[in-house]
Design a protein that fits this description.
The chain is 0% helix and 53% strand. It is mainly beta and 116 residues long. The strands form 2 sheets. Strands 2, 4, 5, 6, 9, 10 and 11 form a 7-stranded mixed sheet that branches. A 4-stranded antiparallel sheet has the order 1-3-8-7, with no helix packed on it. β4 (34-39) and β5 form a beta hairpin. It is globular and about 40 Å long.
Length: 116
C-alpha cells in the first residue's frame, strides 16, 4: 500500500512562485519514479514532470518548473516559477514502480490558483 500526500498549493499572482511537496508513505522505495500531474477545470489530467532514472518535463513547463527529490526522506518537490493563470489546476503527486508502464499511485491533490 502506497500513500502520497501533497502540500504547498495556494493562491499566487501571475509571475510568482510556489513550491509543492509530496511525501511518499508505505511500501515504496527510493528508486521508484515519482512526479507530478495536474488537472485544470474542465480539462483532463496531464503530465507535468517526473524524476526517475532520468528527469522529464512537459513541453508547457518551458523551463519554469523544476522537479527535485530527497530520496532519503521519500519526498518529491516541484518548484514552479513565473507562474501563469493557465497553470491554475489541482496538482497531483504520482509514483510508480520502475518497470511499470502506468502511473500507479496518485495523491489526493493540492489546489494551486494563479491570479492575473
Amino acid at each position: 500500500q502506497v500513500q502520497l500526500v501533497e502540500s504547498g498549493g495556494g493562491l499566487v499572482q501571475a509571475g510568482g512562485s510556489l513550491r509543492l511537496s509530496c511525501a511518499a508513505l508505505g511500501r515504496i522505495f527510493s528508486d521508484y519514479p515519482m512526479g507530478w500531474f495536474r488537472q485544470a477545470p474542465g480539462k483532463e489530467r496531464e503530465f507535468v514532470a517526473e524524476s526517475g532514472v532520468s528527469t522529464t518535463y512537459a513541453d508547457f513547463v518551458k523551463g519554469r518548473f523544476s522537479i527535485s527529490r530527497d530520496r532519503a526522506k521519500y519526498m518529491v518537490y516541484l518548484q514552479m516559477n513565473n507562474l501563469e493563470p493557465e497553470d491554475t489546476a489541482v496538482y497531483y503527486c504520482e509514483g510508480r514502480r520502475p518497470c511499470s508502464g502506468v502511473y500507479e499511485w496518485f495523491g489526493q491533490g493540492t489546489q494551486e490558483t494563479v491570479s492575473s
